[in-house]
Automatic annotation (TrEMBL):
Source organism of this protein record: Acanthisitta chloris
Protein name in the entry: Phosphoethanolamine/phosphocholine phosphatase
Keyword Hydrolase included in the entry's annotation: yes
Assigned EC number: 3.1.3.75
Catalysis performed (reactions): phosphocholine + H2O = choline + phosphate; phosphoethanolamine + H2O = ethanolamine + phosphate
Length: 240
């Protein structure tokens, strides 16, 4: 069996869902004083402030849900999911994302692919008594390369260890992503594994830089994609 790991923002979907939800805000924009509070590496905390502002403006759960459901999938992603549905007994599929549980579940259900995923790891989110959309950090960690609230390498490593304890060993791990926080876990992949970075995005650039600086240090096979059809094609060839 193979383990297939997906990122969500700008991988499964064509946008960053944190930016997308601003469409539910009054005038589809955020006031400058909120935008100025953003600090590199503390995006989760920034989003907590954005959501509190939107709650103050009367944005409701149904408004957020509609935005999430309507975010377009990335090119070829529907084809990849179709391929995975047909071959689901061969793949264990998980999702690791720095977005939030509510948004991811809303989108995957709307796309009809929620049942493909064995497990989703993302920041906890819910609606409080006032009906405000609230967000929390996923965990804490010691990785210096990742945002304070999530290290995907830690999540993937712990997941593989947990599955090994349950006597599930994977022949290969496939990782489909786009961001710098997807590069971190992909560095732990072995030569049997495959990293699918989205072409021209940070994860792709970082694998190229690592190859230049330390040839052979990045062990996994790198298969960049513009359309997820390319990922489906690669997996199809492999199954032959």
């Amino acid at each position: 069996r193979y383990l297939l790991v997906f990122d969500f923002d700008e991988t499964i979907i064509a946008e960053n869902s944190d930016d997308s939800i601003v469409r539910a805000a009054p005038g589809q924009a955020l006031p400058e004083h909120i935008r100025q509070t953003f600090r590199e590496g503390f995006y989760n905390e920034y989003m907590q402030r954005v959501l509190a502002y939107m709650g103050d403006q009367g944005v409701k759960m149904s408004d957020f849900k509609t935005v999430y459901e309507n975010i377009p999938l990335s090119p070829g992603m529907a084809d990849l999911f179709q391929f995975l549905s047909k071959n689901h007994e061969l793949f264990e599929i998980i999702l690791i994302s720095d977005a939030n549980m509510f948004g991811i579940e809303s989108k995957l259900r709307a796309a009809g692919v929620y049942s493909l995923f064995r497990k989703i790891f993302s920041n906890p989110s819910s609606f409080d008594k006032r009906g405000y959309f609230t967000l929390g950090p996923y965990h804490s960690h010691k990785c210096l390369d990742c945002p304070a609230n999530m290290c995907k390498r830690k999540i993937l490593t712990e997941y593989l260890a947990e599955r090994a304890q349950e006597e599930v060993e994977f022949e290969r791990v496939f990782y489909v992503g786009d961001g710098a926080n997807d590069f971190c876990p992909s560095v732990t992949l072995t030569s049997a594994d495959v990293a699918f970075p989205r072409k021209g995005y940070p994860m792709h650039r970082m694998t190229q830089e690592m190859e230049k600086k330390q040839p052979g240090a990045f062990q996994a096979t790198v298969v960049p994609w513009e359309s997820a059809v390319e990922v489906a094609r690669y997996l199809q060839e492999l199954l032959k």
